[in-house]
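Follow-up to my post from last week.
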Amino acid sequence: MGLDIRIPLGLIFLIIGGIMSVYGVVTRHSAIYEKSLDVNLNLVWGALMLLFGAVMFFVGRRQKWQDDPVTPRPWERSGGTPRH
Amino acid sequence: MGASGAKYGINTSHFYWIGAIPAMIFVGIFMMPFYYGSKARSVPEYLRLRFDEKTRAVNAFTFAFMTVLSSGISMYAMALLIQTLGLFRGIIPDNYIFHVSVFVSAIIVLGYIFLGGLTSAIYNEVLQFFLIVAGFVPLVWIGLRNVGGWQGIKQTLPTTMTHSWRGMAHASTNTLGVEWVGLAMGLGFVLSFGYWCTDFLVIQRAMAADSETSARRVPLIAAIPKMFFPFLVILPGLIAVSVTSHIAPNPAAVVASTSASVPLVDEHPHGIIPLKTNPLNGQPVLDSNGQPVYNYDLAIPVMLLRFFPTGILGLGLTALLASFMSGMAGNVTAFNTVWTYDIYQAYINKRATDAHYLWMGRVATIGGIALSIAAAYAATNFNNIMDALQLVFSFVNAPLFATFLLGMFWKRTTGHGAFTGLVSGTFAALLHHGLTIPADLAPGIHGGWISIIHRYPSEMAQNFWTAIFAFSVNFIVTIAVSLVTKPREESELVGLVYSLTPKPVENHLEWYQKPTTLAAAVFAMLIILNLVFA
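User reply:
Got it. Predicted complex:
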């Protein structure tokens, strides 16, 4: 359980958001956006996802949970010593 | 649920609001200390500690059976959706697409459970949840822009679809066809508490937590997104029925040579929902009055294809598939735990090494997925069998909460009482179903197969009342039998029954860290939401 969930979550959003933003920039003013009422959804939403992914990824990295020893489970704790 | 949003309107939020949140608060505050503190590894194991072996056996076997079937049904629904939308048309031949979808999804789920077990199933569920949100939020945003916001929806749709409590006084004046007593007691009390408080699939996540306080917070924190989830899944359904066909050109051509432009009918609006077609001959399906039937299951897919341009469309479809996949993995992990601990270790091989049980757990994962595939194919061949199985689920699940409630809060409850109550509750459900029938349906799978003594206004009303009867019978029979059988020693029940268990110590927590504070906040939000959309 050592992996902080924010890191894979951040990565997946960085990758998907990145692809969508680049595609959104390339297809500016394209006719495909008639569908979405002339909002460039790829660019707008891709950028938001990129931002969310970046925040998750860097916060997850900074906390370095993955380097901590795994918090002992109740049945692994020896003799009921409090862990705080 | 997007389907129900399109069909019933905002009333569907009851399934989230009163159909889940109160039960989640209850399990977090009152029941989690027993699950976590009893050192049981699964819900059936708790039943063995509290009652006896036979009560556990009933629960373990029915639960194992149900998880496999529900993961099979998710698999079937996903494969059917991929086939209907023609997502891989041109890459994979049409005849094989269903089989490929079933097997590929099975292999993916098998792969990550096999490698990482419950941990990877939980990680995947978190990622899937965020993907679903990321895929559906822009859909709601663009959809609302299109129909002129919430005000626009209100103007287009009848008021019963945009107010969750209006017309609840009588079954004929709301879209669900249920009056408020049946809704509150059947859905809000019996069914939702039966699912959220006793289903191991739900409890397992909290049991994996690292302390009792965390375990109690799990359902409480989960209740918050659960409260807002209706906006993501019900709103697309509501928007789909509000959109009239003149606003944008029809990009849904892939789905629907069938989505004909029909003017908005006031009583049952259908917007861009396509007609249901018979898969064999491609003809639209007609109901008994000769009216065409709309395929509400396609509400969200049709919305995605209509509003999303290339690019984000991929994200939307991923979100849609993620919503099916997450159900599968959870069911499979719950199945392998219950199979290994409560069936294999309890009845087949009692004295093996831990390594052997771990091996058995892996085999159970493969077995569970193989059985899911079998269930998915069974669902393709017999449509009625799926209805019948869902009925069996409701018969087995409905009385269950009474057993837990009495077991946890009344120390006098005995094993014989719990067992007899559970079995007679199931029979009460069966009997009630056999004696009643929803209006306008023929006797048979929908009920009335013994004789008809009562007609319910809708199938949902019948379901809710079946649950109420099953619960009450179980409750009364358990008490009656417990009073005439010998109770267990109180010293054996410490940690299992409320009155004999020391209250959780929370002195080291600040007031805002306590689970009760969180529960109160969640409850307040629930009331506000209900008032806003009343």
